[in-house]
């Protein structure tokens, strides 16, 4: 379902997705800002689990593509930083607002708007620059840089503190990073993962490829456009990024 503008109106949420959550659990009303790779993956995942999902996305082509691939998701073409489109999405009825665009400034503004104007109980954001995580968290937004963990934060009763405790091991000596493979000319695209020479203290956790999330094995090959989620020691972070992205 795709709307360019206009209020959903009474019953919009139930019309969007009438199924109960997978396993008979309680459904969650989720509004997602951004329908790109991350947003579309989260929207489809939560819709398939029976949750009520609305996506706000600026780009008309992305809106149309998402509406076709996830017919139970309501897609609104617009800017989530604009109060009109959050009103159309009925953010005031949502349990969670998730901003997952590639722009940290937009994500922060959209989350603040959802919290201050529509009093959404929980705001979750994808943080593209890890240096910005502290700003998001200080403003009451659950900011995290891993797609997988964004999903966990939405659906589970976890706080950012819980996630950091779980994934930042040994008092901050490890970090979760997300690295995009920019082109097929990258050296990492021509070797099996086991032959990449990954630094000590580094583990590849998952590969996001289009709509799929892949658990990597030693004989897998990376492709241009992949997003690689890894746990790495802080001293090996730059080496990891160089191995994955250098041509």
CATH architectural label of the largest domain: 3-Layer(aba) Sandwich
The shape is: globular
Percentage of residues in strands: 15-25%
Q: Tell me the domain tally.
A: 2
Top-tier CATH class of the largest domain: Alpha Beta
**What is the CATH topology of the largest domain?**
Rossmann fold
Report strand order across the widest sheet: 1-4-3-2-5-6-7
Q: How many separate helices?
A: 9
Oligomer: single chain
Structural class: alpha/beta
Q: Give Rg in angstroms.
A: 18 Å
| Cα separation of the termini | 41 Å
Give the H and E element order. EHEHEHEHEHEHEHHEEEEH
Tally the beta strands: 11
For the record, what is the CATH homologous superfamily label of the largest domain?
Answer: NAD(P)-binding Rossmann-like Domain
Q: Give the % helix.
A: 25-40%
In short:
With about 250 residues, the chain is α/β, with parallel strands linked by helices.
Describe the 3D structure.
It is globular and about 50 Å long. It folds into two domains: 2-159, NAD(P)-binding Rossmann-like Domain (Rossmann fold, 3-Layer(aba) Sandwich), CATH 3.40.50.720; 174-245, 2-Layer Sandwich (Alpha-Beta Plaits), CATH 3.30.70. It has nine helices and eleven strands. With 247 residues, the protein is α/β, with parallel strands linked by helices. A seven-stranded parallel β-sheet has the order 1-4-3-2-5-6-7, with helices on both faces. A four-stranded antiparallel β-sheet has the order 8-11-9-10, covered by helices on one side. The protein starts with a strand and ends with a helix.
Could you outline the blueprint of secondary structure elements for this entry?
Layout: E1 2-3, H1 12-16, E2 29-33, H2 37-48, E3 52-57, H3 60-69, E4 74-77, H4 83-88, E5 96-99, H5 104-116, E6 122-126, H6 133-138, E7 142-144, H7 147-155, H8 160-167, E8 174-180, E9 202-209, E10 212-214, E11 227-233, H9 237-245
Parallel strand pairs: 1-4, 2-3, 2-5, 3-4, 5-6, 6-7
Antiparallel strand pairs: 8-11, 9-10, 9-11
């Amino acid at each position: 379902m795709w709307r360019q503008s206009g209020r959903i109106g009474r019953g919009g949420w139930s019309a969007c997705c009438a199924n109960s959550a997978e396993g008979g659990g309680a459904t969650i009303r989720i509004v997602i800002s951004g329908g790109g790779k991350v947003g579309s993956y989260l929207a489809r995942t939560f819709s398939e689990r029976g949750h009520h999902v609305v996506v706000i996305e600026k780009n008309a082509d992305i809106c149309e593509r998402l509406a076709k691939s996830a017919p139970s998701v309501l897609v609104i073409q617009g800017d989530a930083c604009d109060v009109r489109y959050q009103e159309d999405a009925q953010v005031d009825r949502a349990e969670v607002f998730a901003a997952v665009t590639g722009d940290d400034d937009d994500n922060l503004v959209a989350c603040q708007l959802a919290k201050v104007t529509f009093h959404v109980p929980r705001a979750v954001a994808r943080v593209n620059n890890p240096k910005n995580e502290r700003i998001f968290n200080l403003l009451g937004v659950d900011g995290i840089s891993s797609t997988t963990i964004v999903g966990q934060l939405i659906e589970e009763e976890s706080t950012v503190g819980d996630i950091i405790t779980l994934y930042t091991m040994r008092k901050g000596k490890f970090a979760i990073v997300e690295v995009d493979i920019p082109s097929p000319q990258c050296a990492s695209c021509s070797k099996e993962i086991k032959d990449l020479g990954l630094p000590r203290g580094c583990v590849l956790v998952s590969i996001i490829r289009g709509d799929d999330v892949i658990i990597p094995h030693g004989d897998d090959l990376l492709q241009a456009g992949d997003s690689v989620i890894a746990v790495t020691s802080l001293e090996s972070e730059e080496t990891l990024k160089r191995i994955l992205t250098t041509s």
